[in-house]
Amino acid sequence: MTEKTFSQAELAEFDGSNGKKAYVAIDGVVYDVTDVKAWSEGKHHGQTAGKDLSAVIVKAPHKKSVLAKLPVVGKYTG
Question: What is the mean predicted confidence (pLDDT) over 53-66?
Fold first, then answer.
């Protein structure tokens, strides 16, 4: 199976709203946060799924430590 590559427009479709999957991009990798309780409805501490959050995660208390627990669904090209 080939890995999916997401453009900015394609990633934006996965914002977690109305039952959609919730994906976020960090450093060129797309992660599925759909089943993460803290990402209910695609929102988490003022952030919204469907975006590149590379600049945001480095400011979070947990930094990138949470990424190892998330399923990778593809690559982000921006």
Answer: 87
Residues 6+ apart with CB under 8 A from 45: 38, 60
Q: pTM (2 decimals)?
A: 0.92
**Phi and psi of 27, rounded to 5°?**
50, 45
What is the per-residue pLDDT for 2? 58
Tokens 């976020």 appear where? 24
Distance CA 35, CA 49 (A): 12
- DSSP category for residue 52: B
The domain made up of 4-76 has a fold known as: Flavocytochrome B2; Chain A, domain 1 (3.10.120)
Domain ranges of the chain: 4-76
More reliable by pLDDT, 78 or 23: 23
Tell me how far the alpha carbon of residue 5 is from its chain's centroid. Answer: 13
